[in-house]
Amino acid sequence: MNRKRQILSILAGVWLLSLSSCRVRHTPATLAPVPVPSAYAGSLNDPNTDSLSIGNDPYNRLFTDANLVALIDTALARNLDVKMALQRLEVTRAQYGISQAALRPQVDAVVSAGVDRYGRYTLNGVGNYDTNFSEYVTGSSIIPNPVPDYFVGFRSSWEIDLWGKLRNRKRAAYNRVLASQEGRNVIVTDLVAEVARLYFTLLSLDAELEIIRDNVELQQQALSLVEVQKAAGRVTELAVQQFNAQLLNTKSLEGGVRQQILQAENQINVLLGRYPQPIQRGISIREQQLPATVAAGVPAQLMSRRPDIRQVERELEAANIDVAVARAEFLPSLNLTPYVGLNAFRLGVLGNVESMTAGILGGLSTPVLNRRFIKGNLRVTEAERNRSFLAYQQVILRGVSEVVQSLKGLENFRNVADYQTQQVDVLKQAATTSDNLFATGYATYLEVITAQRSVLESELSLINTKRSQFLSLVDLYRALGGGWQ
C-alpha cells in the first residue's frame, strides 16, 4: 500500500510540474513590421474605396466571357499543379500531427521474453544462489539458472515540455500548414491569370488571322487590277511583280499566326489537364470590353490579399519560432519512462496477480559536450529567419511594383489604342484614295503598295495593343491577389 502511495505521489508531482512548465516558455522574438507606401505611385484611387478593389472580385465577375470562365473552372478542377499543391498541404498537415503527438506520452504495448545465465562469481549469480537456500523461497519462487524473463504490459516515454520547446515546434508546424495553404492559393491565382492571358492571346491571334485574310483579299483585287493595267500597257511587269510579292508576303503571315494559335491552344489544354483539342472562343477581342473603372485599393491591403505575401509571412513566423526552439535546446530536458504490466521468471505464474509490476524513471539531462553542435544549429536557424525576413520584404516590394506597372499599363495602352484606332481609319481612307488615283493614273503603284502595307501593319498593331490592354488587366488582377478566393 505504501508503495502504491509513493507511485501516486510521484505521478502527481510530475503532473503538477508539467502544468507549471506551461508558464515557463521560451517565446519567439517580435518581428519588426515592414513599411509600405500609403498609395500606389501615380494612382488616383481614393484610399477609402479600397473595398472596391478588383482583387476582391471573383474571376467570374471580372471576366464576362462565359467561355473563359468555363476554361478557368475546368483548370481549377483538373490542373495537375493544383493537385500537387494539395498533396504538399497534406504533408504539412501530417507533420503538424507529428508535432502534436510529441507533446503526449508515447505508449507501447510490449510482449518480451529473454534469458540470462549469470556466472558463479557475479553479483546476481551469488545472490540468486544464496536466495534459493532461504526457507521462504519455495516452489515457483525458486530462481532458476539460466533465468528467464517474461514481460507483458505497457512502456511509455514522455518528455515534459519545461521550456515550451515542443509547443513552439507545434506552432512552427502549424504556420507551415498555413504557408502550404497559401502556396496552393498562389498556384490558383497564377493559374487563373495564365488561362486568362492565353485566352486573350488566342482571341488576338484570331483577329490577326482575320485581318491577314481580309488584306489578302484586298491585295488579290489590287493584283488583278494591275494585271489588267499591264495588259493595257499602262504599267510594266515590275509593278505586277511588286504587287504579287506583297501578296505572297501577306499570305506567309497566315502560317505563322496559325502556329501561334496551335501553341496557345496546347498551352491552355495543358493547364486544363487534358490532351490537345480545340478551344471554344467567345466574341472577338475587338468587341471585348474592359471595365469602365478599375480600382486597386491601397498597398497595405496587399498584406492580407496576396497569397504569396501571406505565404512568406507564415514561413517567416515559422522560421522565427524555430530560433526559439533552437535556443531552448541549451536548457535541460526532463524525460519520464513509466511502465506497468506482468513480469515473472516463470511462464506458468506470469498471469498471477502477484506478478503485477509498475515503475517510473525520471531523468533530467542538459547538453555538455555537444553544445558546439547546438550553437551551430542556432546559427543556421537565425540565418534562415533573416533570409525569410528579406524574402518577405522582397515579395512586398515586388507586389507593389507589379500593381503600379499594371495600372500604368492599362492607362497607357488605352491611350495608344485610341490613337491607333484613328490611325487605322485614316490609313484605310488613304488606301482607298490611292486605289482610285492609281486607277486614273494620278498615283504610282508604289504608293498603292505602301498604303496597303500601312493598313495591314496598323491593324495588326491595334490588335496587339488591345491584347496588351487585356493582359494588363489580367496582370493587375493577379498582382492584387485576385482569383483564389
TrEMBL record:
Gene3D superfamilies attached to this UniProt entry: Outer membrane efflux proteins (OEP)
InterPro entries the record matches: MdtP/NodT-like, OMP_efflux
SUPFAM superfamilies named among the record's database cross-references: Outer membrane efflux proteins (OEP)
GO MF assignments: efflux transmembrane transporter activity
Keyword presence, Protease: no
One GO CC annotation: plasma membrane
Predominant location category: membrane
Family membership noted in the UniProt record: Belongs to the outer membrane factor (OMF) (TC 1.B.17) family.
Protein name as it appears in the record: RND transporter
Source organism per UniProt: Siphonobacter curvatus
